[in-house]
Amino acid sequence: MTDTPQLGSFVRELTIADVIEETADAKSIVFDVPAGGEDDFRYTPGQFLTLRIPSDRTGSVARCYSLSSSPTEDARLKVTVKRTIDGYGSNWLCDNAEAGMSMHVLAPSGIFTPKNLDQDFILLAAGSGITPVMSILKSALAQGTGHIVMVYANRDEKSVIFKDELQDLQRNNPDRLTVVHWLESVSGIPTAEMIGNLLQPVATKRHSYICGPAPFMETVKNGLRRSGADMHLIHTEVFSSIEGDPFAEIVIDDSPGEDGAGPATAIVELDDEVHEVSWPRQTPLLDVLLSKGIKAPFSCRKGECSACACILKSGEVEMIHNGILDPEEVEEGYVLSCQLLPKTDRVEVSYSE
């Protein structure tokens, strides 16, 4: 795969070290972290990588795959990919990825990640939704102190990704980990009532992390509600198709605002640092930050994922498009930096909360 001048300066390259067959339709792709690239690929449990996949029709497509590796327990990065019907990216990777191949990627991103690994967790996954949950599980067992209940749903026993690894983790942590395998071939499709009854003894005051197909996640959320769980402690991972090209170079629009106003000032808190930047009125904040070499998190650059979400601390802004944040999140102050334009002369945001 050759470099092209259209790639942004923020694009990185990884080499595949190994491809592991997990099940008949799922593979893990293991990447070496290049020497000196540790900072670029530092991540937290539950985050994902955005891969640039070749396409004969469009040149390339961008797809997000969760990291199943643990940042504290694994020296290499690993994403796990399950074939989906008509899924171009998953089928291309399962058919073509091999050791020695180089791929363009974006830095790890995503907000489906615990802030405290010492707490008690409920982890719920279905199918390939185990991927980010596995990263959280391994990290919490190694670095945390809490008790973890995991419910993992699959069609049948052959579909269970990481089956042996889960058995080893449970065997090595009998007092801290309980794994419940829900097999559709044995117990049928879970209902909210079933999930609620199963989790009722442990749901109160625990943070719950859910990843899987949309119907599964909705069922599980309803089950948690029935069990008495605090709905503010429920976290879900939602991926949507990326239609644009997040790997493309940034173009800054320096034209004034509608009223002829010059650039605003953005105060940005990120990774325990504070940046003050000039913010052209017609350019989204994320583009401004990336153009200045500031490593702000992002994935789609289209307002369809939550990777670039940050908190508005002061000032007024508008979002060009919001395809992911719900009204409650917007009310709490969350904004998408890839779609954010200033309405006041000074705006303060934070990625650190």
Automatic annotation (TrEMBL):
Q: Which domain of life is it from?
A: Bacteria
Q: Where is each FAD-binding FR-type domain found?
A: 9-115
Q: Name one GO molecular function term.
A: metal ion binding
**Which terms are listed as keywords in the entry?**
2Fe-2S, FAD, Flavoprotein, Iron, Iron-sulfur, Metal-binding, Oxidoreductase
| CDD domains, alphabetized | fer2, PA_degradation_oxidoreductase_like
Which residues belong to any copy of the 2Fe-2S ferredoxin-type domain?
A: 264-353
Positions of transmembrane segments: none
Q: Which Pfam families match?
A: FAD_binding_6, Fer2, NAD_binding_1
Per its UniProt record, what PROSITE patterns does this chain match? 2FE2S_FER_1, 2FE2S_FER_2, FAD_FR
Q: Which InterPro entries match?
A: 2Fe-2S_ferredoxin-like_sf, 2Fe-2S_ferredoxin-type, 2Fe2S_fd_BS, Beta-grasp_dom_sf, Cbr1-like_FAD-bd_dom, FAD-bd_FR_type, Flavoprot_Pyr_Nucl_cyt_Rdtase, FNR_nucleotide-bd
Supply the PANTHER family for this chain: 1,2-PHENYLACETYL-COA EPOXIDASE, SUBUNIT E, NADH OXIDOREDUCTASE HCR
- Protein name, as recorded: 3-ketosteroid-9-alpha-hydroxylase
> What species does this protein belong to?
Dietzia lutea
